[in-house]
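Molecular record:
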Amino acid sequence: MTDTHGLATAPSTLHEAQRRRRGVQAALDRLERAVAAPSTDREAEWVVRMADELTHLQGTWDNHVTVTEEADGLFDEVMAEAPRLAHQIDYLRTDHLRIATLIEGARQLTGRPAAEGFVSEISETAVDLLSRLTRHRQRGATLVYEAYHVDIDAAD
């Protein structure tokens, strides 16, 4: 989409993506707090909290993927506006699958019977997930900026 001056304008799906982006960020913040919480002498409680936060993250992640990948969603609109960004979109689509797999893997770890080092394994997996999600969010923000010259986290 362009305005009367030929400048790219943000589509309505961008506003929905922003809203869902805030939801993913809130879920990441909650997960980070859960990972950072002490687990010594309260491993079972810590694991339950991690499972809850990972389940919450999975729901917000699924919503994010839906709004960006659905027909006429954000990725389709970016492609229509800036086809030169196809490679970045392909990377982000693939990353959506990788991240969904990481979330599910972390959730499965929380369902395993307690064993020596299981809290550490869950923690390390969650920290890796947080890192991957942060990189994904940065790539997504870059994509939107390159397509529309809009900072997705600052746009109204």
Remarks:
- Helices lie at 12-36, 43-69, 74-81, 86-110, 118-148.
